[in-house]
Amino acid sequence: MKKSLGEKSGLAAPMKKGKIIILASPSGGGKSTMTKKILSDFDEVKFSVSATTRKPRYGETDGEHYHFLPKEEFIKKVENDDFLEWEELYNGTMYGTLRRSVENELKKGYFILLDIDVLGALNVKKMYGKEALGIFLAPPSLDVLAERLRHRGTETEETLHSRIERAKKEIGYTRCFDEVVVNDDLETAYSQIKKIVINFINR
User: Which domain holds residue 126?
Assistant: First the structure.
């Protein structure tokens, strides 16, 4: 049986009311990898599955990686105020964080991990204030980010250019986050994130 964080590290048991941990970065910045490592190490942390109108990539499962919704359904949820945050990207693809699922898990005392884009992260941080921890995962350089996106094999040169231009703007928001971690070496970056998360859980 998997142990709780308290049993693993001698830290206190979870608080009665949960809080939000926001992990944001430009596309290709390493959010998904860091998310998996956090969820593996912290039993108190639950992942918030975002909704999107884009098609699933190879290996992605509906309800596990994203809630894949038709655009008409997504727009209806926007009109019904079902999202904590949502945004439409350069190519018309929409992403959002479902309000009800987050609030339900917070009431149970869990810390909810949001793996979202930068502008969405700022919206949630503004909404929850000190009850949310904002971590910006920064690439060591735009050249490294571009190479990572190329290696992913899902980008055309046109979409790659658009993502890099967007990343330039997103990096300008680092001052709005509680913590900034440069993802140059994976293990070093995660070690920093792990310490930040432990401190937040036990605050």
Answer: 15-201
